[in-house]
Each structure stands twice: as structure tokens, then as C-alpha cells.
Amino acid sequence: MPYRSPLAELRFHLHHVAGYAQVAATERFADATSDTLDAVLSEAARLCDEVMAPLNRSGDLHPARLENGVVRTSPGFAEGYRAIAEGGWVGLSAPTDWGGAGLPLTVATAVNDMMSGACLALQLNPLLSQGQVEALERHGSPELKRVFLPRLVSGEWSGTMNLTEPQAGSDLGALRARAEPQGDGTYRITGEKIYISWGDADFLPNVCHMVLARLPDGAPGTRGISLFMVPRNLPDGDGHPGERNALRVLKLEHKMGLHGSPTAVMAYEGATGWLVGPPHGGMSAMFTMMNNARLGVGVQGIGVAEAAFQQALDWATTRRQGRAEGSGAIVEHADVRRMLATMKADLFAARAIALDCAVALDMASATGEAQWAARAAFLTPISKAFGTDTGHDVAQLGIQVHGGMGFVEETGAAQFARDVRVTQIYEGTNGIQALDLVGRKLMDGGEAAYRLLDEVERVAQGARTAAPQLAELLWQSAETLRETTDWLLSHAEDRGAGAVPYLRAFARVLGGRAHLQAALAGDEARQRLAAFYLRRLLPEHVSLLAQARDGAASVMAVTPADLAS
């Protein structure tokens, strides 16, 4: 079954759950009306369904390859990327000063959802450029902005982020890449970076690398790291790509999935670069790009979950097996129905959380209010981790729905599972997201968390007449989560051991709120799906929060010797 963009679902979320109307009501985004939103989403859906989706299988079967130092991309990807760039989709939420459309991030997030479901390997390219645009716009010098931003926003050039080194994975403080000042405002960058998504492409006149490196006087650890713009081709006086810089792709990784997206090992051999942000301020500047990408990666998981669900549903409603009643298809079996309902319910919950985060980011940008910024910061790790966990879980259930044919590559069900798996790892593993949630995000004494829980309880209270049983389930889950948040705040030394279950429990409760909102605003189908989620999936929060409150002792008591015995 070919992928079809979930237009109706996205519109329902934006208008009835995420609260997009408050974004359009701000002065900054006054032009982003409901009509504009619908027009943009409709046009994006055509691009996704007609141009990108047909490339998904091609990218898997015909991976990018390195040939005589040139990255040869998958068949059709050049034309697909050109359609993305020429349509203005790279710069959808970029500032108009640099040629962008200036639309809310919420709109771009919905578009990225559809693009990820259509062809994740290709969508990763503009996603990285979007993050680089934000980092440059906030931290770049006027000259860097003048040269690079118009070309990145238009999609003429693309952007990457270079953090990881062989000896420095998540521990960026251990990086060894060096930057030597040349006395003319440029720096010579030397070092090796790994896992560089879209590190090069044969259809791009220039690829712009954001590289973390250490200046000679840089202190050990993350405080001594700086950020540099290092293009593949050095711009001439008019900003056109000129001579080749001293950098190259050493190899492309042979990966489990995302074969159409070239993942490069990059060598910088005295390459010319320009400082982005202040000396030794690289982590702050890079985190601007990473935080943008973290929401984007969460949405990648959601997009793949959508594609996997669509295919599983089509299979289940057409495949005849066993003694099924009704239509005679396997969807009539209770366990198959359970799997499909789980897929759809979790997909709804993850999408709601991501769009809630995007709205908060837009409101923070439009109003400057600290509470919106705090809300967005709190929701970002939840959006990334739960969105990508959902992508993985839904893709795995999709294989199970297909039965033996899910394990056979012919159906394409396995590709979703292979492609989406890395989203739980890159842009900060989901374990790191959880540590961020219980660490930095609780440094406000839990204020952002408690405000979200207050909202959950207001929704539950408002539903007590229309759906009393479901309202009570949601109310009690919020209270249990509130108690566990209290406990974590007074047991800082135990937060790490309970971080992952705490994040997932928070996502479960936020998903319950979204489903109850949908039940109140939607038809009987949404009411039935909400009941399934609140009765079947929400109760998981009880065991998760019990783990979060158990502390670190039972985890750390299991010694390395115990594990090896």
C-alpha cells in the first residue's frame, strides 16, 4: 500500500488538541491563518505522496555509495531533493529576511511528520539544514549569515552537524578535533568526525559542516569547545562555491537501515573554517541546532510510525487467515485488533506531545514569555524519546501484524523497523533525554512539570460529566505522577536510575490528556480509541513510576561480575 499523508489527522490535532489557534492569534504569526495552514499542508502532502514516497524503497535497495571520493546518492534522490528545495520546504519556518517563509515551527513540524513517513532517508537532509539555519541565525556573524543563510534556506546548499568522534560519542568533552587561528579571521580545522548524516551528496554544489573543535587555549571538557562553519567548497567573493576545502569523506558506514541517507566518516585536514558564536562557546551554539533537531527526530519516529501503521492496517484488512468472522480478514481477530489499536493510540499520543512542544516553541518565540519557553524545554526530551520509541514499537508491531511476511523484505514492513531504529540513538540517546528531563528540566523545582500536571487535571475535571470513568483514570494518573515528581526532587541521587521510566510515564499521562481532549471534541471513533488508550495503555504508568521511585540501590547492586556470571 502506498503511503498517504495523514492530512485529516494532522488538522484535527492542530485545531482540537495542540491549540494552533493561539499561535495564529499572535502578532508574529498573524498571517499563518487556518486557511494558510490548510493550503500549506495540502501542498506538502502532494509532495510527500507523489514525489518522496516512491523513493523510499529505492533508497533502501540502492544505498548511497562512495565512488572515487564522491558520494553517489540513491536513484531519484537528486530529483526528490530538488522538488523539496524548489518548493521552499527547507525554509518553511526560516526568517523571511533570509528568504524563508517565516511560518510557525508548528507548521514545519506537521510537514516534517509527513515527509518522514514518506521517505525518512531523504527527509533527514533538509531537517539538518533547518537546524543549522537556526544556529547560524542566532549565533553567526553578520558576514556568515550573509553568505550562508540565503543558500541554506533555499536548499541550494545543505547543512550537517559534526559532533561525534571515534573516542567521543555522547561524551563531547573528550573530543580531539583542533582549530588553529590563522590571524585573518579563519581557522584551520583538523580532526576526524563520525556518524555524519548526509556528509556529502553528488547533487549539491556545497555542503556546510558545523564542526565542534577545540582552540589551543580551550579548557578540557565541554567548556573548552568552539563551533566552526566549515564548507566543503570555499565561497568566493560573491558567495559562490569555489575551491575545494581540505576535507573529505573517508568512508560511508554500512548500516542497519536508512540506506538512502549517506552516513560519513569525515576527515578535516587543515580545512578552513569560521567561528560561530564566541570562542569556547560551541556547546551553547550547537545545542541550538541540537534542540531543533531533537523535536525533529521525535517527529521522524512519528512519521515512520504512521507509515508502518498504514501498511499494517491495509494488510490486516485484506489478508484472510484462520476462521475470522465479519469480513473474514485477520483484522477480525482480537489480538490483531489489539495490536492495531495500540499502534494507532500510541501514534496519536506521540503526535500530540510533539505538536504541543512545537506550539510552545512558537508561543515562546512570539511572546517572549518564560513559561512558554520552560514548557517547550520540558516537552523537548519527552517528544524526542517517546516519539522515537513509538516509531520503533509501532514498526515492530507492524511486522507482527504481517506475520511471516513481515520478516520477508518483500512487503517492506521490515524497512520501517530498520530505518527508525537509529532515531532512538542519534541527537542524544533516549536515555540521555531522560537524564536531561530529571536533571536540567527539574532544576526549576518542578515548576514546569507541575504546570503540565495542572493542565492534565483541568482536562480531567472538565470531562467528569461527559466521560466520568475516563476522567477519573486520567486524574489519578496525574496525581501519581505528581507524587513521583515530588519524590525525585527530594532524591536527586536516585534520579538517574529512574529517569527512563519517569519520562515514559510522563508521556503516558500526557497522551491520556490528549486522548481525552480528542474524545470530547471528536466523534465516536475517537471516543472509542481514547477509552482503549486510557484503559489499556495508560495503566502502564503505575509500574513505570514504581520503578522511578525504587531508587538506584537495586540497579547498582547488580555488579559487573553478576552480569558476567
Textual characterization of the structure:
This protein has helices at 7-17, 20-24, 34-52, 56-61, 77-86, 105-118, 120-139, 142-154, 282-318, 334-367, 370-402, 404-407, 413-420, 430-438, 447-462, 468-490, 495-521, 524-537, 540-550, 553-556, 560-564; strands spanning 65-67, 70-72, 158-162, 178-181, 187-197, 207-214, 225-231, 233-235, 241-244, 247-252, 263-276. It is globular and about 70 Å long. The strands form three sheets. Strands 3, 4, 5, 6, 7, 10 and 11 form a seven-stranded mixed sheet that branches. The protein has a two-stranded antiparallel ribbon with strand order 1-2. The chain has 565 residues and is an alpha+beta fold. A hairpin with a 5-residue loop joins strand 8 (233-235) and strand 9 (241-244). Among the domains are: 7-154, Acyl-CoA dehydrogenase/oxidase, N-terminal domain (Butyryl-Coa Dehydrogenase, subunit A, domain 1, Orthogonal Bundle), CATH 1.10.540; 158-280, Butyryl-CoA Dehydrogenase, subunit A, domain 2 (Beta Barrel), CATH 2.40.110.20; 431-554, no CATH class.
Features:
Butyryl-Coa Dehydrogenase, subunit A, domain 1, two-stranded antiparallel ribbon, Butyryl-CoA Dehydrogenase, subunit A, domain 2, 21 helices, 565 residues, seven-stranded mixed β-sheet, alpha+beta
Rounded mean pLDDT is 96
Tell me about the biggest sheet?
A: 7 strands, mixed
- Reading off the top of the CATH hierarchy, the class of the domain at 7-154 is best stated as Mainly Alpha
Radius of gyration: 23 Å
Tell me the quaternary state: single chain
Beta percentage is 5-15%
Question: What's the shape?
Answer: globular
| First and last CA, distance | 48 Å
> How helical, in percent, are the residues?
55-70%
What's the name of the CATH homologous superfamily of the domain at 7-154?
Acyl-CoA dehydrogenase/oxidase, N-terminal domain
Q: Which CATH architecture of the domain at 7-154 would you pick?
A: Orthogonal Bundle
